[in-house]
Write a structure and sequence with these properties.
CATH superfamily of the largest domain: Metal-dependent hydrolases
Structural class: alpha/beta
Number of strands: 22
Shape: globular
CATH architecture of the largest domain: Alpha-Beta Barrel
Strand content: 15-25%
Number of domains: 3
Helix content: 25-40%
């Protein structure tokens, strides 16, 4: 007798094939049959009228410390996500993330990468997690926020990266608008990516510029991947800044040309026109040089110098010119009273730049949601087959971006069912195998005999998310059942309370 049968659903394999009505038989944590007579089962779930898909794989997550929270956090399972890729944008919590605490705002132990993964595994994640090692973290471990590397420090970064890959890191990430990673040049990143190549893992990058210099930033990423011979993942693909709207073709043309020339490149995207990051990202990255931004912003002369750089725009200017004070919503701040208010509101008719400097000086780890993109660009990028889905979530607490609780259901409800940007087979491929293949998650991201039974069952007529920037944590709708290696962890839309996730090592 087998463990479980999902009976009568429309099965999508995650590879882009059309859906077929079939029973799915699961035993011992694996799919053992799709179609035919599965025989007797200990449990049968009638999923007639529902879509049965591989569990979704979130290409771009920031849930690195979520498993350490006292209670299990089902916010991704309720979206149908069974695996997250953490450690993005150059920030992992090992090795030795103490060197970048001012930016992360999270005091953490001086973990090796193996110790970090062991701590997450012991705590028990609610869903599966795989983790990249971050370039900024590697740099912080050897040089702090010092822009220049001293002799031997790059070699030490490469050693630490190799140790992380030996421990199971699933790739290398960079965040080239954030210090200290922004201080690294192309040669530095090539050397680190060559270490990734030795272990057969990809390089994922938050580009050095996602606005006016998007083309040059993509050229750099592609050069790094070509020279190091690694798979390339371009994180949260977008065209940022009002002056650059309509430029989706620049991004997509670069990705297509690179792929035709032999670079294995893909990207990910969240289905929103606003992003979310640290409030300090509005400032030029040079503001964080030395790591003592509070002292720097205490100087009127330095504020004026930084303002001139920010208003000039371009690479190294920060996001100031790509946003507006009214389009910046402060979502967390140590002062408390700023959260939930726009920068324009907080300025109260005064100078928003000075208000920004005051806020960052008081809390360098403060967060924001910021309007950056045009809907037309979001849709054009979404329709390209090279682009998968990544939420870019924060922790599931407070006034986070709604993508934290609703990225995948919003994509499926708003953009697939309602607007038809892509069809169901392609949408499910984008949410599953497109990412699983890129990060080497063998046996996951597809639904067929022999695959791990990570499964999402959802109602195509109901799936969606009603969260907003003001009220982001609305519960998703339409996701009825979720399985992790054959264990039902979301049962008739309710989380069972069990920590069934695993740490996936490369």
């Amino acid at each position: 007798m087998i463990d479980l049968v999902l009976r009568g659903g429309t099965v999508h394999d995650g590879l882009g094939s059309p859906g077929v009505t079939a029973d799915v038989a699961i035993d011992g944590g694996r799919v053992v049959a799709v179609g035919g007579d599965p025989g007797a089962a200990r449990r049968v779930l009638d999923v007639t009228g529902l879509i049965v898909a591989p569990g979704f794989v979130d290409a771009h997550a920031h849930s690195d410390l979520v498993p350490l929270m006292p209670e299990p956090q089902p916010f991704k399972l309720l979206q149908g996500v069974t695996t997250e890729i953490n450690g993005n944008c150059g920030f992992s919590y090992a090795p030795d993330a103490t060197g970048i605490e001012e930016l992360t705002g999270e005091p953490v132990p001086d973990w090796t990468f193996a110790e970090y993964l062991a701590a997450i595994s012991q705590a028990g994640p609610a869903n599966h997690v795989a983790t990249l090692v971050g370039h900024s973290t590697l740099r912080g471990a050897v040089a702090g926020f010092r822009p220049e590397l001293r002799p031997g420090e790059l070699a030490r970064m490469c050693e630490l990266a190799a140790e992380a890959f030996e421990a199971g890191a699933c790739g290398l990430s960079s965040g080239l608008i954030y210090p200290p990673g922004s201080y690294g040049d192309t040669e530095e990143l090539v050397e680190l990516a060559r270490v990734a190549h030795r272990y057969g893992v990809p390089y994922a990058t938050h580009l050095r510029d996602e606005g006016s210099a998007l083309g040059r930033a993509l050229d750099e990423a592609i050069e790094i991947a070509r020279r190091a011979r690694v798979r390339l993942q371009v994180s949260h693909c977008k065209v940022a800044g009002r002056r650059n709207h309509g430029g989706a073709g620049i991004l997509l043309d670069k990705l297509r040309e690179a792929r035709v020339s032999g670079v294995d490149v893909r990207g990910d995207q969240y289905p929103y026109t606003a992003g979310s990051t640290v409030l300090a990202a509005l400032l030029p990255p040079s503001a964080m040089a030395g790591g003592d931004v509070r002292e720097l912003l205490g100087s009127p002369a330095e504020r004026a110098r930084l303002r001139a750089v920010a208003e000039a725009g371009g690479t190294g200017a920060g996001l100031w010119q790509d946003s507006t004070p009214a389009g910046v919503l402060v979502t967390s701040h140590a002062g408390g009273s700023a959260a939930g208010r726009s920068l324009a509101d907080l300025a109260g008719g005064g100078d928003p730049w000075e208000t920004l400097c005051d806020l960052v000086a008081a809390d360098p780890a403060a967060q924001m949601v910021v309007e950056l993109m045009a809907e037309e660009d979001v849709v054009e990028i979404m329709g390209d087959p090279l682009i998968g889905i990544g939420s870019d979530n924060g922790p599931p607490v407070g006034l986070e971006h709604p993508r934290t609780w609703g990225c995948f259901p919003r994509f499926l409800g708003e953009y697939v069912r309602e607007r038809g940007v892509v069809g169901w087979p392609e949408a499910i491929r984008k949410a599953t195998s497109a990412t699983a293949d890129q990060f080497g998650l063998r046996g996951r991201g597809w639904l067929g005999v022999g695959a791990y039974a990570d499964v999402c069952v959802f109602d195509p007529a109901e799936v969606g998310h009603a969260g907003s920037y003001a009220a982001p944590d609305a519960r998703p709708s339409g996701v009825t059942h979720v399985l992790l290696e054959g264990q039902v962890v979301v049962d008739s839309t309710e989380f069972t309370g069990e920590r069934r996730g695993r740490v996936l090592r490369a």
